[in-house]
Amino acid sequence: MSLLEAVPNFSEGRRSEVIGRLTAAADVPGVRLLDVHSDPDHNRTVLTLAGEAEPLSDALFHTIAVAVAEIDLRHHNGVHPRIGAADVVPFVPVLDTPMGDAVAAAHALANRVASELRLPVYLYDAAARRPEYIRLENIRRGGFETLRDAIATRPPDLGPAQVHPSAGAVVIGARQPLIAYNIYLDTDDLAVGRAIARRVRASSGGLPAVKALALLIPRRGQVQISMNLTNFHETSIPTVFEVVREEAAARGTRIVASEFVGLVPLDALLNVVNAALAGDLTLQSVLDLRLLDGG
Amino acid sequence: MSLLEAVPNFSEGRRSEVIGRLTAAADVPGVRLLDVHSDPDHNRTVLTLAGEAEPLSDALFHTIAVAVAEIDLRHHNGVHPRIGAADVVPFVPVLDTPMGDAVAAAHALANRVASELRLPVYLYDAAARRPEYIRLENIRRGGFETLRDAIATRPPDLGPAQVHPSAGAVVIGARQPLIAYNIYLDTDDLAVGRAIARRVRASSGGLPAVKALALLIPRRGQVQISMNLTNFHETSIPTVFEVVREEAAARGTRIVASEFVGLVPLDALLNVVNAALAGDLTLQSVLDLRLLDGG
Fold first, then answer.
1. With contacts defined as CB-CB under 8 Å, which chain B residues touch A262?
2. Is residue B276 less than 8 Å (CB to CB) from chain A?
3. Cβ of residue B5 closer than 8 Å to a chain A Cβ
4. Are strands A210-217 and A9-10 parallel, antiparallel or unpaired?
5. Which of A244, B86, B91, B220 allows an S-S link to B67, with CB 3.0 to 4.6 Å?
6. Does B186 touch chain A (CB under 8 A)?
């Protein structure tokens, strides 16, 4: 079994009948819809799907086709940057699936979308074929309105050399699972939180593959360091925790709690177990997986 | 889905054709044989099976019937205490199955074994109906040879009031999963290890539901604290680790590594994660389970 997750993002977060048509198009045997998240401010919907590569790619193709038919970017507004009706479609390897399977699925879907839907397709992250397209923000900078005029300077990997008049273009790729992780501090001093976030986040020279910002959570009267770990193989959860703990101590405060938002890969949790216990536990030793996996 | 594990122990660890018949009898649709462990010194075989209550109980009934037909305790010897050809048959709740389901399965199997195989049946641990039978050692003390003469003083819960002439009696029950956990210390001083094991084990006033002994591991030149955690809800892995860490520090040594023998329930590992991260993660947040569980 080679199970993949896909997290397609569509530029529609308000018209419920269109959102309903997108989820209906994903209803393919062998594919499970784990989550639907629509944001009216972003005017954007994110589906979380899981399945083996073939049925999952079928489901994604159908949803992209619905997005092309139903969403017109010429009349779309929202605060989130986007270049397509179906904007970005990442495959994520889960369980013991290798990244190569996610990349292969991304390339196959990209070919089909380019040829059958006549959309310009960009390949990003682990599926990128050009180094400048590894980072999504390089492809999406300026959004649909910029790309429409400047596509010659940012040529797609596949498909036509012109943006689709109403549906724009699409970014397809493969990436590591993302972990949304928040740490609460025993302080309401946002300046302390901001200083710690700066020390942690990759973009200011902190930990690789970590995005971080500080927020004051009024309900708790505490500062939260809100993080995305974009590659837990590169920077693990226990490393992040330890660095925040040290930086907090250096500023006279301490961690009071931490929490994950959404689902966490077990592999990332085993890093925590092994750091805490000086252990070397692997997925093969986890009873629940062995029972469920048929292995 | 209400998944159970069963770990039946049979008094045969040498004759491979009998062991083969036992495993063949467990081959019931819906039941998976996860492990077979035969020990010639103990003259004993332990199967690990998993399935839903009905097929699992069917498989256990068939294996017990094979044991009754094939094993004669009058000609059996081995270093491990035993009162039956099929000696002890524990059901273990796994994943999110409640203990009550394991107890109900134990009671149903006990009734069938008592009436159809005419064996005296004792109910133990969470399935016990008499407080003096909660602990397995109270039922099994002195083995088959003692029970044969003294069964009137140790009456079975179900079935005939006499031991079966060749197959003895059987103990059926329900218990928490057992975790086999070893901690290595940065010392080769076995006296230090023994002192720590005494502080940790329940029987000398240490931690509830923990068995512990100290061993010198020549290959590593290190002392190992070898433990069984018989109820990780009562004493968790991080509690055990912390107590060993403190006791080691008090004696001038430290933990260098730790390891699990066999499979570990994920719930017990989440205790470690939550202790390390000041977290409150539950099984529902673990991606891999959600993907495999169909949930």
1. 285
2. yes
3. yes
4. unpaired
5. B86
6. no
CATH fold of the domain at A3-174: Formiminotransferase-cyclodeaminase; Chain B, domain 1 (3.30.990)
Query: How far is B127 from B124, CA to CA, in rounded Å?
Result: 5
Q: Which fold has domain B179-288?
A: Alpha-Beta Plaits (3.30.70)
Q: Do A263 and B241 touch (CB under 8 A)?
A: no
Chain-chain contact of A264 with B281 (C-beta, under 8 angstroms): yes
Rounded Cα distance between B53 and B97, Å, is: 11
Would the CB atoms of B292 and A237 count as touching at under 8 Å?
no
The reply to whether residue B260 touches residue A266, judged by beta carbons under 8 angstroms, is no
* pTM of the entire predicted model: 0.79
Q: CB–CB of B145/B50 below 8 Å?
A: no
Which of A96, A78, A37 is CA-nearest to residue A292?
A: A96
Q: Does A145 touch chain B (CB under 8 A)?
A: no
Tally of CB atoms within 10 A around B228: 15
Query: What residue spans define the domains of chain A?
Result: 3-174, 179-288
